[in-house]
Structures are given as structure tokens and as C-alpha cells.
Amino acid sequence: MGKGARKAREARNGKRRSSGAAFVARSFEGLAAEPELIALREFVPSATARLPVAGAEREIHVASVLPGAAAAMVRSDGTAFLGLQVQAKSSDVSRDLGRALRWLRDADTGDTLAVPDTTSEPVDGERLQDQLDPDVALEPELHPDFSWWLPPGERDSAGTDPAVQRANEAIMPTERLLSAPAETGQATAAYWVDAGEKAHLRWVRPEPESELLAALARLSARGELGLGDGSRYAGSFRAHGLLVPVWDLDREAHPREWVGPAGELGDRLSATLAGLADQPLDAAERRARDGLLGRQITIR
């Protein structure tokens, strides 16, 4: 191979490497909406929420999943949606979604963006953090099916729409357990999920993993990590840089029955987190933390 051809190949390879920007582990860091965005992207089946887009001329909603796992669409009635569960991703999910959001700002009624742009060179101002109000949390609306893919006037035909039918068959019943206090602006992202044989509480927590694990370990050592009878701490999984603890629950109990226990657990967890700086983990708590570290679970 000649020197000129070799240099050209090296230039092309360098361009591919630069367009594949550095991996961003915590995709939505800095946004009050971070926990709910993770929940809607990772395990909530059918949900929408108004997206706090700064300076947008149209109202835009974020959605757990759109028809065909599209990146974005404008429904025939003009309602705009940004899809979270999509078919492709780059090393920076926030940039992928931000690009789809920029497309959505100017899209025409009926337009669909099938896949996000995951290959263009990064430019300033295109990540979600650049386009959303960072202090506004999401308030998701959960739906029992996917009839919302259609405008209100067309939903009578949703039962015969093949795409809606297929999507409905995959839904696991899900309820949002806790609502964030309006004055704090912080989302809670705590969800009851009926996975078939068991029900679960899946709770996206905003704290750094090391601090959260220490607090969970302290509660575990005290015997205070459960939600009462019919519950068991199952483990945790990581998603977009945050830890998601999971509890097994008695699926015969109604989701509302877990709201109080989950709130009490949240209070214990907050108090424990606040005390970590003044009181390091003792030997029993460190052993509990080691045990929690070994209980990583997979939800799919």
C-alpha cells in the first residue's frame, strides 16, 4: 500500500473514532428528570410525559416507546413525541435523543424519524442537557395499552391495529408508586411491576452508587431494608450510571398497598444517606455491602 493511501485510510479511521465520542456512563446527569427518563427508557412499558423543552414552539412529549421503536414522531393530530426505547444508540444516549429532539422541533405533522442519528460528528448544544430545563422533573402518565399512539378520534380502531395489538401483548402491568413532592422538584421513579410469577418494586435512585450502596448496607445490617411482610430485597441493576434497587413483592397485594411501605423505606434511606459522612460503615455493615454487591440482577 502506498504512503498516500495509508494516510487516507488513517484519516478515515481517525474520523470514525472521533465521531464515536467518548462513552458517557451517566447519560442524563444534571437533569431533575434523570430518574424518570431512565425508568421510561429501561423498563416502563407504556408511558408519556410532557418534556420541559426550553424555547420550543410546540409542546413535546417524551414516550417510553413509539411504533416501530421510532426515535420521534408527530401524530396526525400534531402531537409530538420523542421516543426513549429505540433501535440504535451511540456512546452518548443524551446526544442521540437530543438530535431526535432537534429534528422534532421542526418536523411536519405525520412525520416519523425511524432511528436516531448516532454517527454524525458531535456539535455543541445538541444533548438533552442543552435543550431541557434542568430543574423540571417529569410527571409520567402511565397507560394500560398503546392506543395513545393514535389520535383520540382514531382510538376506536386501536384494537384492530396490528402494531398496537403486538405492543399490547408485551405489556407487563406497571404502576408508579410515589409522586415527587412539588416543592422539591425531584422525581422518585419508583415503580411496581407485575412480571408474571412475581411483582417487583424497581426504584431508580439519583444518588452516586457508592453512597447508595453504603446506605442500603446500613439498612440491611439493621434489618430495615424490606418493605414489610411479603417483600424481599432482590438485588440491583445499573442503568445509565445510576443504581436501580429491586424488591420482590407479593403480587397478590394491590400496588397501592406498597405506597406507604415504600415511602417509609424512602424516609429511612434518606436519613441514612444523610448520616454517612459522620459515621462510616462498621464491620457488619461492610459485610452487608459486600453481600449487596454480589446481588446484581438482570431484568430482561
Quick recap:
This protein has 300 residues and is α+β, with helices and mostly antiparallel strands. It has helices spanning 3-19, 34-42, 93-106, 128-131, 162-169, 209-221, 259-275, 283-293; strands at 47-50, 60-63, 72-74, 80-83, 112-113, 141-142, 174-176, 190-194, 199-203, 231-239, 242-249.
Number of contiguous helices: 8
- The separation of the N and C termini measures 47 Å
β-strand amount? 15-25%
Tertiary shape? globular
Sequence of secondary-structure elements: HHEEEEHEHEHEEEHEEHH
The average pLDDT value, as a whole number, equals 89
Q: Evaluate the radius of gyration.
A: 22 Å
The secondary-structure class comes to: alpha+beta
Which residues sit in consecutive blocks of at least 5 with pLDDT less than 50? 1-19, 180-186
* Neighbour order of strands in the largest sheet: 5-3-4-2-1-6
How many individual β-strands? 11
Largest sheet: 6 strands, mixed
- The helix content, as a percent range, equals 25-40%
- How many individual domains? 2
**Please, what is the oligomeric state?**
single chain
Describe this structure in words.
InterPro entries: DUF5926. Pfam families: DUF5926. Residues 1-20 are annotated as: Disordered. There is one protein chain. This protein is an alpha+beta fold. The protein has 2 domains: 23-169, no CATH class; 174-293, Yope Regulator, Chain: A, CATH 3.30.1460. 31% of the residues lie in helices and 16% in strands. The chain has 8 helices and 11 strands. It has helices at 3-19, 34-42, 93-106, 128-131, 162-169, 209-221, 259-275, 283-293; strands spanning 47-50, 60-63, 72-74, 80-83, 112-113, 141-142, 174-176, 190-194, 199-203, 231-239, 242-249. The strands form 2 sheets. It has a 6-stranded mixed sheet with strand order 5-3-4-2-1-6, with helices on one face. Strand 10 and strand 11 form a beta hairpin. Helix 6 packs across helix 7 (259-275) and helix 6 packs across helix 8 (283-293). The longest helix is centred in the N-terminal third of the chain and has 17 residues, at 3-19. The radius of gyration is 22 Å and the shape is globular. The protein starts with a helix and ends in a 7-residue tail after the last helix. The model is unreliable at 1-19 and 180-186 (pLDDT under 50).
